[in-house]
User: Fold these one by one.
Assistant:
Number 1:
Amino acid sequence: MAILSTSASYFLILIILMSSNKLLCISLPHNLLCPTGISKYAIPVFREDIDLMQFSENLEFLEAEYYLWATHGYGLDVVAPELVMGGPPPIGVRKANLDPFAKNIISEFAMQEVGHLRALKSKVGPGFPRPLMDLSAKHFAKLFDEAFGYKLEPPFDPYRDSLNFMLSCYALPYAALVGYVGTNSHIKGYETKRLLAGLLGVESGQDAIIRMYLYERAGKVVYPYKHTVAEFTIHISILRNRLAMCGTKDEGLFVPWQLGAENRTRTNILSADCDSLAQWRSPAEILRIVYNTGNEHICGGFFPHGANGNIARNLLKL
């Protein structure tokens, strides 16, 4: 009798385990195997949860379109047209000059954002159409000029290469991350909480990967400028704190000792508060940043006509 190879043996064991699990699932009710831990009297989604969760669709649309176009040269209108609900396509977005490593990362992020939009729309209602978004190189150049306090020459172009693109991405998952942390204390439904936790987990992972990518290149000078990657992150974070107007909730790759973990490190691979907990922002703070106006009542920046949803639209009316 022939002796099975190691890989064949592992494959056989896997089949046996899968088969036994299947038999077990047949013999026992699912709720005994996988109890939810949820009271039968609990409410899945409170009415008050809906606007808060739907607000985050603005950032998910922003990330999905940016990542899809950068890696594939097309966006949601091709990949998942049912999600845009007739909303206008983004301005100025195009395919980026990414190396294979960066492209693989961003391509996966892109598909994750599509899933996030689908999950939000399926669990808390259809939401709203895709808002008009400005993802042009011209807009990013203006943003980076404001971060440094003078005009960069040549103008910063996020589509130029992988490093520029990752620097431009530095802002996106983190905005969603702090928004979800801020929303958490206001929602009540168990289904809504699970949705938020799932979204927060992945957005946090995306932010960590982008920050690690940049941290590995922290001392590299960004061509053709005289500033390092670390300096770029610090200037962008300072700008976002200034626009949000609610203290230091955003930090670059290096910080003073008093802002480092337990006041013992200047490295800042993950941005967090004095207890190393994730920071949080309100919808108003986020809008001040993404509008690039420092005012949640005045639209601009990434959303020339304003973000969508009840929260954002009501703030524009005030």
Number 2:
Amino acid sequence: MHLLITGATGFIGKHVLLDALADNRITKVTVVGRHPPSLDGNDMAHVKTAIINKLTIITREDLGNWDYEGDTKLVTALTDCKACVWCIGGKADDFATPQEFERVSYTFTVNAANFLCKVAQSQPIEGQTGRAAQPFRFCYCSTKGANRAGDGWFSFEAQTRNMKGRVETALLSIASESDGRMTAFVFRPGSVIGGATVKALGGLASTVASAGLRLMPSVVINAEWVARVLVDASVGIRVEWQRQGPDGDKNTWESEEIVSWSHGLGV
């Protein structure tokens, strides 16, 4: 399967890239970003062969420009792509202006989803089996408490949560209008910390952080767990509770559900 990853230089995205390269179910990985990801770290050593055999890096200055009609090079590069893990974004406080926050968080994501929907609609499904016969999967890394109603202005990090909820709504709408050729999956991790970071804290701080990961899965989550679930979701959903929600097919997973999913994968 061919997987597209964005945000591969970021905190979660770099783990997504590592897991995708190590996953034998994924035969091709394309990274699109402004800068190429680092491939020289010790954690990349065991996937060196995969880097050579299945990784393609495409750099673009403007990640808001996804032109299906005009950008034949990108269309050709992604013609057989079956999933995207989208890790571009951040908190409102990470950006200089609200306009820049909206451009990166909303415009980049929605433009890419519309582009990939057209890619999916152009792919032949007659005679296909397995993953190739299934809809394109857009796996969006959102945030805990994302508010699709857009009215949570008095909550903690309201601007971030309202924007993430707005993006979620747009993605689900694009998927619903794709004639069954695309599906949107939303993942809402809590406060994300890295396993290596926890170990590096040492002493009491490390003990407290580790306890938080165990006892508060709805609040604190390990970056490696999030990444593993995002990659696994792009390929297949194998457990009933992951497939079905109270109102039908499931499309949104909260932080504690991501933790359970990751543990089921042996993480």
Number 3:
Amino acid sequence: MAAVIVARRQRRHNRQRRERIFSVRVTLFGMIEEKIIETYRLSGDAILEPLREVGADLDPVTRRSHAVPAMAKLLATLHFLASGSFQRTVAVSSGISQSVFSSALSQGLNTKHGFYVVAGFPKIIGAIDCTHVQLVPPSDREHIYRNRKHTHSLNVQVVCDSKGIITNVAKYPGSVHNSFILRNSALFSHLRDGKYGDGWLLGDSAYPLHPFLLTPRTFGVLKSRFRCLDRTGGALLYSPQKVAQITIVCCILHNIAKRQGIEHDAMDVEEDCHHRPHTGPPNAAGL
């Protein structure tokens, strides 16, 4: 018996402890600017802007030496938004959508002069249109997310200024028509109450307004820059509420890129939101 115990102790002594292997942290240092923009769709300086806004929320709560730092979390999120890949493993922080939204989309609609300079339209406060973002619907409400083309989506209403900066966003299930979204938005109430003076919105045939091509181009740039929003990246594998957050984050980052002068080619976006108006399906609440 003593010999067995001695043998076991000898084996434990000779057994080498497996060394823990940690992957190298993703950082911006050492990357050329072109590669940063290609990978994350933002410049190094532009990436620091949302980091300043939400860094405290993303910092690890543990003191362990290998806790994931805020920068790594942010870069992982940006890479996902840009590529649309690894949807099951990358989580988008709600802190980004909450903290940055309050500062980045509160630009107002004071863009009349810009539209007049660009297109000769007087008194225009914004261009409005809708785009669809594909998703996997909840089984108990599948029907309200089915759009005209029998896919499932969010119908996202966007208003932008003359420079393509997004100034207002509203999200509804994909079966809801453009005009329903507008009439049930805070933006409509502000227009009705004269908050923006005698200004006008420009839209396409889905609205009782004039046609204008600026917003579809903004969608093309937005979806080309952040491929997770485009159908070519596949449906987003999250709840509608999470897809709404992702959409807001992409709009915020689009604005940051525009303000930093980071341009991106627009892709052709085939929209499926121009269908017969209706009052909206049951429980078609904004997200």
Number 4:
Amino acid sequence: MMKMRSYVLIAALFMWKQDCINCLRLLELRVPTHAAKGGEAILGCQFDLENDVLYSVKWYKDGREFYRYIPMSDPPISHFATPGVMVDVSRSSNTVVTLVHLSQESSGLYRCEVSGEAPLFATVYEEKYVTIYLLPESKPQLTGLEDKYNIGDKVKSNCTSAGSRPEAQLKWFINNRLAAKNYLRGPWYRTTPNTDAVETILELSFIVGSNHFQFDTMDVKCQATIAPLYQEESTHHAVRYEIQSLKPYTDEPILGEKPIPTFSGFGDTTLLQLEEGKTSTAAPRLHLNLFFLFLAFVRYING
């Protein structure tokens, strides 16, 4: 009988303990999965005490405690040196911890642990991994583009996104429409000196057609993305240039008036025969010369 009572008492204590544990619940862990190098991250830990009393809130990075909040302590906040973790105490509390000056070492597994008061010290926790990204310091750079194009011209340009970690994803647009795949070459990657950051390069190349103009203008844009933290774009505006004007009703360019040529050995060329049946005034002179030549020949024979 005593043994049965012991079992009942143990079961009751176990059920009471389970009910108390269920009183303390961690509602939400707000930790960004990605953050930018040099920036900040706000870590949130929302919990419900129900009938329990808060004993402590502790934060860990990769299993190492760096922040502690104990309401019964004076002061209630304590923080401990941890590589890659710099706490802004003025912006931290029992539910929020603010990290500033993030570095590559700030990447890691972050855990929030909430404990109730004695005698049970019920504890709940959740954790999430944070990755630190190195973002480009400038917008993507465009090279090789002209201010004016016409049908048949060739467009060839490189879009370069500055060093980042991870590498940027590049896209080309023509008049806000995604460029066709056969217009593209690359991407290529290049590691910047003294760092593991990577530059990304994507080439755009195509022959201009009438479909590439909208009201005689063409906008070419490159977009660089590192989701979910970064998206920047650069746009180049080009116009359609005018072709040299032609003489009306003819395909010949306007060349200006040219003087009629003259030849000193032939005299006035305007008197030469131009068409069959029309003679110039030079013909009688030729006949007269032949007559004098004939007379000179006769005199030579008779002489």
